[in-house]
Prior knowledge:
Elements: H1 2-6, H2 8-15, E1 22-27, E2 30-33, H3 34-51, E3 58-61, H4 66-78, E4 82-85, H5 92-102, E5 106-110, E6 113-116, E7 130-136, E8 144-149, H6 150-163, E9 171-174, H7 181-193, E10 196-199, H8 205-215, E11 219-221, H9 224-227, E12 244-248, H10 254-263, E13 268-275, E14 278-285, E15 298-299, E16 304-308, E17 321-326, H11 338-344, E18 345-346, E19 349-358, E20 364-369, E21 374-376, E22 379-381, H12 383-394, E23 399-403, E24 412-417, H13 422-435, E25 444-448, H14 461-470
Parallel strand pairs: 3-4, 3-5, 9-10, 9-11, 11-12, 12-13, 24-25
Antiparallel strand pairs: 1-2, 5-6, 7-8, 13-14, 14-15, 16-17, 17-19, 18-19, 19-20, 21-22, 23-24
Amino acid sequence: MRLKSSKMLYRQLCSAQDSNATVINFGLDQKISYGSLQKEINNTAASLHKMGVGSGDRVLVQNSDLFSYLVGVFSASKIGAIFIPIDHDASPLRLKEIFSQTLPSAYIQSLNNIEYIKVKNDLSFETDGIAGIFFSSGSTGVPKGIPLSHDNLLYVAKELANICDLKENHNELLIARPTHMDGWQRITATLYAGGTISPRRAMSASMLLQELNISKANGLYIPPFIASSMPCSIPDFSSTSLRVVELGSAAIASNILSSITSSAPQAKVLYHYGLTECSRATILDVKKDINAIHSCGSPLPHVAISIRNSHGQEIPSGEAGEIWLTGPQLAKSYWNDAKLNREKYQDKWFKTGDIGSVDPNGFLYFQGRADDLLCNKGFHFYPAEAEKELASILGIQNFAYASNSDKYNPELLLFLEEGASLHFKEKIAEKISQSLSPIYHPDKIIFIEKIPRTSSGKIDRNTMHSLHKKS
Length: 471
């Protein structure tokens, strides 16, 4: 019974498809079939098993190319192990912290570099049914692990494939990172439909249009860092093969959604709300529900939303409060963190920390964060984590991250105290660019006399917002 469950993700997303069909199209006639993917998964799964990796063991997967990444993920899944996706450019500090939390038995950096790690597995966490552990930013500066089951991941894959009307001829232009839920669930939905993934790099709207024309893709998720630049440069998608466009993970202004709808008259345009803990909780079909274009859409089947006040009591429709979620894709808990579980889970509900309201028709309206979680280019992180890494690089402590509080045009701000030498100031941007993940790269570096703090000594980010407005 356990073995059958452990193979669920692999069986439904890889082994059930036509082996001759193309699963990955790298361009320049570099294509990989489902059969080739299955063969490499089987070989890698056998290698892991021979090393002693088994059911419930953790496997770190950190690859720069999509083929190796998928092989690593699904080979772990096939033998009942738990995959842990890591960004290829993750910092050594982040990697070390994730390693210490999960005690992995194997580390896959490439198909020719699989490291077996003999560890004392003394974790008491129940691993049955868990497919992968996705790490997001933690409020204490330590990444938090979110175990997602085969059922969690397959639910979103199936629902997204259905909403997007994906078929075997689907060709997904993949711009988003596969290690994050936005990119990952676009991959799983495409695999579920038996379609093709075309991974590309595009850092602007014009590059996006160019890659669409080259790849002939008919499906696309537009990451927030590209969507935020579109008010000045909406591409003309009308001559492309696009049939479905999705946006999400950050507040997108309604004028951008309207412009994309106009520029892609042949395509369905979708906008979602969700978190790693509960991916794609709501989806807005922009053309179908144009009157609700300022919303994040309505819940997916079997997903429920409750708006609560500060006492945890449900409040009437239309009033703003904290968004609570429950549904088939909701993670049951955090990885080995009882304190965080008590704070964020209540019965079947998950407390998102987001503020919003629901109208009488069930559409969700997002208004902002209840805490200091920051968003940069669609990636969410708590400033404490970024500040911890930056401190080790710059060798100073008197600095802090904040945002400009503009939900449609957010800017990541880095405040530093005056007193640094001119040479040091000139080198800060260079050091950050060379040493930190792009997620932590600030849009602006601002020097102030003193970092504001509360009476308890915590950084006062609200005051920093005010300082930025005055500057």
